[in-house]
TrEMBL record:
Gene3D superfamilies: FAD/NAD(P)-binding domain. One of its GO terms (molecular function) is oxidoreductase activity. InterPro entries: Amino_oxidase, FAD/NAD-bd_sf, SQase_HpnE, Zeta_carotene_desat/Oxidored. This is Amine oxidase domain-containing protein. It comes from Alcaligenes pakistanensis. Residues 11-426 form the Amine oxidase domain. PANTHER family: BLR3003 PROTEIN, PROTOPORPHYRINOGEN OXIDASE.
């Protein structure tokens, strides 16, 4: 078949790769000049180098993405730094590490050995996790993460120290709004799985190079082509006047709705368009800092205390990612960056640098900052709230599929969900 894929984010690239390996003739249309969508390489004039549009991490539980990389022939060890789960606060107030024991003992041992929590708090956490396991990770419908935690006697210290940062990092949605059921899925696939599932994988290459560019190497690709019009024909679908047998629309909901609204209308298509309109979005910011010299912190990834709600939550020292490389880049991640967005940029950058400097001072003095780049992705992910209707990849039109992290993946807006949806759309 002759198949078009619209959008070269992780969902579109996964779909294109799968279609190609199945012997179909694939054309990819991408509106921007780059491959990778919301997880891509950019050039930063301020830093004078390439970097990513935002610091990303993957989990060992991202089995489908990791499997796909293997299929493409890419070695994991040269592209990703895999480490056991080690949630360590930069200021030393908290640490939770996974122990190398069979599941679920690794989780229990990790919880019991956590630093910064009282025995009663550890007991409450262990009891809550045990309840989730017994429930097979199913929570009552319509609950937010905060409501669920409060129902299970997780006190405010525990929530602020552990659950809140984990929820915002995993779902990019504040704990008062985030969907408890999706959060339970995240816990099931990471903490509740085998110890490898909770390992973190930090990219060592830029995000476009990680696998999307190699995957699209032999595929017809039109960069800078923003598709304007889809039309159904007797033999398939026309895309801006070009004829295909089928198409996968792998754009975010707003753009997907724009393309799909011109197709013949049915009650099911009206519902689909209404579902696409109902998504709301939350920004993520990354502050990249170029230091005067490599920092060489003992850990590549450290948790920051963001009690005031507009600072960074995670610090990534790229010199610790590649020991001995002399790398001078540092990334600070600000999820749920709604408040940060409203601040004056220079002021926000200075405040985050000060936050990082203060919270790491007992580890190793931070070298002077030579340059900075604050990137705010306004529609980084959809708000993962209870009751959100997420469409399946099938559509009311038999020659059209949709794909993206926002489809009904069972995950919040994450890379693994995007890849899974792309593969599923290609399969169907
Ligand atoms: C700053 C940031 C940090 C993140 N951190 C993490 C993380 O640590 N871990 C994690 O798992 N996830 C993270 N995410 C989420 C992750 O990046 C997304 O889930 C994933 O990239 C979504 O991929 P996608 O293919 O579904 O959509 P997209 O990446 O949005 O791809 C859609 C593509 O369609 C193109 N397009 C749109 N309209 C058209 C058109 N009309 N014609 C042609 N092309 C079009 C767009 O240009 C885009 O390239 C983060 C996201 C951001 C922004």
């Amino acid at each position: 078949m002759k198949v078009a894929v619209i959008g070269a984010g992780w969902a579109g690239c996964a779909a294109a790769w799968r279609l190609k390996t199945q012997g179909h003739q694939v054309s990819v249309f991408e509106a921007s000049r780059h491959i990778g969508g919301r997880a891509r390489r950019i050039h930063s004039p301020n830093l004078g180098r390439d970097t990513d549009n935002g610091q990303h991490i993957m989990l060992g539980a991202y089995s489908v993405t990791l499997g796909l990389m293997g299929e493409i022939g890419l070695s994991e060890s040269s592209r990703l730094l895999r480490q056991d789960l080690d949630v360590m606060a930069a200021d030393g107030r908290f640490r939770l590490r996974n122990r190398s024991l069979p599941a679920p003992l690794h989780l229990l041992a990790g919880l019991l050995g956590a630093q910064g929590l009282s025995w009663s708090q550890k007991y409450k956490m262990a009891r809550f996790c045990r309840w989730l396991m017994k429930q097979q990770w199913r929570t009552p419908a319509g609950l937010t993460v905060l409501q669920l935690l409060e129902q299970h006697q997780q006190d405010s210290h525990l929530i602020r120290l552990f659950w809140q940062p984990l929820c915002v990092a995993a779902m990019n949605t504040p704990i008062e709004q985030a969907c408890a059921q999706l959060f339970a899925h995240v816990l099931r696939d990471s903490l509740g799985g085998l110890p490898q599932a909770s390992q973190t994988l930090i990219p060592l290459t830029d995000l476009s190079q990680l696998w999307c560019e190699p995957a699209l190497r032999d595929i017809q690709l039109q960069l800078g082509h923003r598709v304007q019009r889809l039309e159904l024909t007797e033999s398939g679908v026309q895309i801006d006047g070009l004829q295909f047998d089928a198409a996968i629309v792998a754009c975010p909901p707003v753009q997907a709705a724009r393309l799909l609204q011109s197709l013949p209308s049915t009650p099911a298509s009206e519902q689909l368009l209404a579902d696409l309109e109902a998504f709301t979005y939350i920004p993520i910011a990354t502050l990249y800092l170029e230091l005067e010299q490599a920092w060489n912190l003992p850990h590549a990834m450290l948790m920051l205390d963001d009690t005031n709600g507009s600072g960074g939550q995670w610090l990534f020292d790229h010199s610790a990612l590649k020991p001995g490389s002399g790398e001078t880049l540092v990334g600070v991640v600000i999820s749920d960056a709604v408040r940060l967005q409203a601040l004056d940029r220079e002021h926000a950058i200075a405040a985050i640098i000060e936050q990082v400097r203060t919270q790491t001072q007992h580890l190793k003095a931070m070298p002077a900052v030579r340059a900075s780049e604050l990137i705010i992705e306004k529609r980084a992910t959809f708000a993962a709230i209870p009751g959100l209707r997420r469409p399946a990849v099938t559509t009311p039109w038999s020659t059209i599929r949709i794909a993206g992290d926002w489809t009904d993946t069972g995950y919040p807006g994450v890379l693994e969900g995007a890849v899974r949806s792309g593969l599923k759309a290609a399969h169907l």
